[in-house]
């Protein structure tokens, strides 16, 4: 049985009924407590929701800040939590309208799965392609397209079949690894948690059934630990630790990714851009000494060699890719500060922050169809391929191989603003990265 | 990337996954900031953060001070617990005393005598006085609508204000703690934990808590649908009948406005059983200050509250 913590993101606009779907999921999964439900019942009645047949406005479940209620908009990613007998979920609810790219990147970067909403009456529209494109770029392992408002097209099986093949084709085009399409009615609840009676022809899983059985994403690449802290108690020990045994303790604290580390493993250490070899002398988990640590574990590593390892250095079991000062990356602009050639930035990769310079922009992606176009600079919500040169060599990994070792933040050195989220493309050669579009999109040319 | 089924994953246990995420966050914050502090009320969430902080740096001692914003409206058991905890971990304790502010006139009592909302001023002054550039807090996103939208590293301007429209995106497990001079950051490493996760972790780790979290007999009276303890700062009005009831607290706050719940849960496992049956949210059941309006927490956060 697939127990554990499952990270889920939802993307779609208010018009697609996303708030209602999230509310329905939480309501039918019995994740809303009585006092919250009373509030929803009261507000629904005050607003006359359902007209002659008073009903619960489940969109109110995700109703958040005062400004959002007043303006009928969703400002930011909201996190919800629910648990079923199968697993616990962290749901990042990403608003679709304002700053959709920035919000989707924030909510979906760590997601095991993402749910995209499509209005059954409209089919795949430009915004659907945008959402799917961003999810493909972020390498979200599982994408679920919920075709909502099926009740409004009379649960038409052939219309759904046509939509399903359309979605599948678009997903393939946009590099989505795995897509599942489900017909639902968030308003009535069919196929969200409970099956309902509206579509006997649909034999696939309900949304929740699918979410309960999808695998949790675990990266298998090269086992790696970015050193977050060097732990040297120098006598200042916690109660219960033997002063004699820990007199000269020196450990490197960090989170394992990509595989497993074992005591005795030969490792490579990249310290200040230079590689060293060592072997693992000891491993400590949060409970004490261990023999092996796995992806996701927060541990402390002791090495046999006397290397001056510091925060930001990287310990790798196996072959380290050649550290490099130049690489290309697909970046998503997260602030309204534009990024262009010649700009000095900071790159946070793993646990280190290094100075870097933007050498050039190969292209900007037009999010409606993901075609590539030349650009002088990138602006808020733009996605584009940039070339970077760093002051210190970095052990970079292609994002396709590792969401952990292949990702970075681009930071404004002056005020600390997070300018962009970056995904490293180690094979972005000249031909691959070149813009092939004929026209510069308006939002870049401006 | 190869994605394999969760059966072979090591992080199949929810608490292990949450613990690892929190420790990762704590280590980033300890490394990226110069003067961190830990907001410590003696409440279960701050106790869990301290426990995680100790794990993040073990075997070394917790390297940062704990900060208590003392409303003066305390449960004696909680203050005793706070002092014992500070002693046990060998910590430095910084106390921002609201009573001092009220005594010398820097703050005036609210008409209703409750002090939760007044904490903001004392908190901000304490942060400034001790030049903390980051303070860890035990807030969780499942507590409240406004908290549900807050980042793990939450930037605060020089007035301590939170701007929900201008939050820094947080992607992957990369945290950016850089901030402008005069600003500070609130770090919430247990953002993704639920109340039930907290209790399950307390059970697993055998974490000690103040005794008021467990069922005990207490003189109480009922006001606005909430059970209030009879204390020097919370006295029954005329017509409010004082009864002895078996109660416990789900949150620890200002003794004058924190409600108790009727409970027979005397141990951590019994609390977990009780939570499984509870139909009320933690704050809805026990915090009068969150009940004033639907946006109560949002408003306080914008002013610089925890």
Automatic annotation (TrEMBL), chain A:
Stored CDD domains: CysN_ATPS (cd04166), CysN_NoDQ_III (cd04095)
EC numbers: 2.7.7.4
UniProt keyword terms in alphabetical order: ATP-binding, GTP-binding, Nucleotide-binding, Nucleotidyltransferase, Transferase
InterPro entries: CysN_GTP-bd (IPR041757), CysN_NoDQ_III (IPR044139), G_TR_CS (IPR031157), GTP-eEF1A_C (IPR054696), P-loop_NTPase (IPR027417), SO4_adenylTrfase_lsu (IPR011779), T_Tr_GTP-bd_dom (IPR000795), TRAFAC_GTPase_members (IPR050100)
Molecular-function annotations in GO: nucleotidyltransferase activity
Domain Tr-type G: from-to ranges: 3-221
Top-tier EC class: transferase
Gene3D superfamilies: P-loop containing nucleotide triphosphate hydrolases, Translation factors
NCBIfam families with a match to the protein in the record: CysN
Record's protein name: sulfate adenylyltransferase
Native species: Zhihengliuella salsuginis
């Amino acid at each position: 049985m697939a127990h554990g913590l499952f990270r889920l993101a939802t993307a779609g606009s208010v018009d697609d009924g996303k708030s209602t779907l999230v509310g329905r999921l939480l309501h039918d999964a019995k994740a809303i407590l009585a006092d919250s439900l009373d509030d929803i019942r009261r507000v629904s009645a005050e607003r006359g929701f359902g007209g002659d047949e008073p009903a619960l406005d489940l969109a109110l479940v995700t109703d958040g800040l005062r400004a959002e209620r007043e303006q009928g908009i969703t400002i930011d990613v909201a996190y919800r939590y629910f648990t079923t007998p199968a697993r616990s979920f962290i749901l990042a609810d990403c608003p679709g309208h304002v700053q959709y790219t920035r919000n989707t990147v924030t909510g979906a970067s760590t997601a095991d799965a993402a749910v995209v909403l499509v209005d059954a009456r409209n089919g795949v529209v430009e915004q659907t392609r945008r959402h799917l494109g961003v999810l493909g770029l972020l390498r979200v392992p599982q994408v679920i397209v919920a075709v909502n408002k099926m009740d409004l097209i009379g649960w038409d099986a052939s219309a759904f079949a046509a939509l399903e093949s359309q979605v599948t084709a678009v997903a393939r085009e946009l590099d989505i690894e795995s897509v599942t399409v489900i017909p639902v009615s968030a308003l009535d609840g069919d196929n969200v948690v409970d099956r309902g009676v509206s579509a006997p022809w649909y034999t696939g899983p309900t949304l929740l059934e699918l979410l309960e059985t999808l695998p949790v994403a675990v990266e298998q690449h090269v086992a790696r630990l970015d050193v977050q802290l060097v732990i040297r108690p120098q006598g200042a020990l916690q109660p219960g630790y033997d002063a004699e045994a820990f007199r000269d303790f020196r450990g490197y604290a960090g989170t394992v990714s990509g595989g497993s580390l074992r005591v005795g493993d030969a490792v490579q250490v990249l310290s200040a851009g230079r590689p060293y070899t060592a072997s693992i002398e000891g491993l400590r988990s949060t409970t004490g000494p261990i023999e092996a640590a796995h992806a996701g574990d927060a541990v402390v590593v002791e090495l046999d060699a006397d290397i001056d390892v510091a925060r930001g250095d990287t310990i790798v079991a196996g072959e380290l890719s050649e550290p490099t000062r130049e690489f290309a990356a697909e970046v998503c602009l997260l602030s309204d500060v534009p990024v262009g050639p010649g700009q000095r930035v900071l790159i946070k990769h793993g646990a280190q922050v290094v100075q870097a310079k933007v050498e050039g922009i190969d292209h900007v992606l037009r999010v409606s169809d993901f075609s590539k176009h030349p650009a002088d600079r990138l602006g808020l919500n733009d996605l584009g391929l940039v070339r970077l040169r760093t002051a210190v060599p970095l052990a970079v990994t292609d994002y396709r191989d590792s969401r952990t070792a292949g990702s970075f933040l681009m930071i404004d050195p002056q005020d600390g603003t997070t300018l962009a989220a970056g995904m490293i493309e180690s094979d972005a050669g000249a031909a691959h990265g070149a813009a092939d579009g004929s026209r510069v999109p308006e939002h870049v040319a401006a | 990337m190869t994605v394999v089924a969760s059966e072979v994953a090591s992080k199949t246990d929810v608490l292990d996954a949450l613990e690892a995420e929190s420790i990762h966050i704590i280590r980033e914050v300890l490394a990226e900031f110069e003067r961190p502090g830990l907001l410590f009320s003696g409440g279960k969430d701050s106790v869990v953060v301290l426990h995680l902080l100790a794990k993040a740096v073990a075997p070394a001692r917790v390297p940062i001070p704990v900060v208590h914003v003392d409303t003066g409206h305390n449960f004696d058991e909680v203050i005793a617990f706070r002092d014992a905890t500070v002693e046990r971990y060998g910590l430095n304790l910084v106390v921002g005393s609201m009573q001092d502010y009220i005594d010398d006139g820097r703050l005036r009592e609210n008409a209703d005598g409750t002090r939760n909302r007044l904490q903001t001023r004392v908190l901000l002054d304490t942060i400034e006085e001790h030049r903390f550039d980051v303070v860890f807090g035990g807030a969780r996103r499942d507590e409240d609508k406004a908290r549900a939208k807050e980042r793990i590293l939450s930037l605060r301007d020089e007035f301590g204000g939170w701007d929900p429209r201008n939050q820094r995106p947080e992607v992957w497990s990369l945290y950016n703690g850089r901030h402008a001079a005069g600003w500070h950051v609130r770090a919430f490493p247990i953002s993704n934990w639920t109340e039930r996760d907290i209790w399950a972790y307390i059970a697993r780790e055998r974490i000690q808590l103040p005794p008021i979290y467990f069922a005990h007999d207490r003189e109480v009276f009922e006001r606005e649908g909430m059970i209030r303890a009879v204390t020097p700062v919370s006295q029954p009005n005329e017509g409010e009948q004082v009864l002895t009831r078996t109660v416990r607290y789900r949150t620890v706050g200002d003794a004058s406005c924190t409600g108790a719940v009727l409970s027979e849960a005397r141990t951590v496992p019994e609390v977990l059983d009780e939570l499984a049956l509870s139909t009320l949210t933690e704050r809805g059941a026990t915090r009068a200050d969150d009940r004033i309006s639907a946006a109560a927490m949002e408003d306080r956060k914008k002013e610089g509250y925890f």
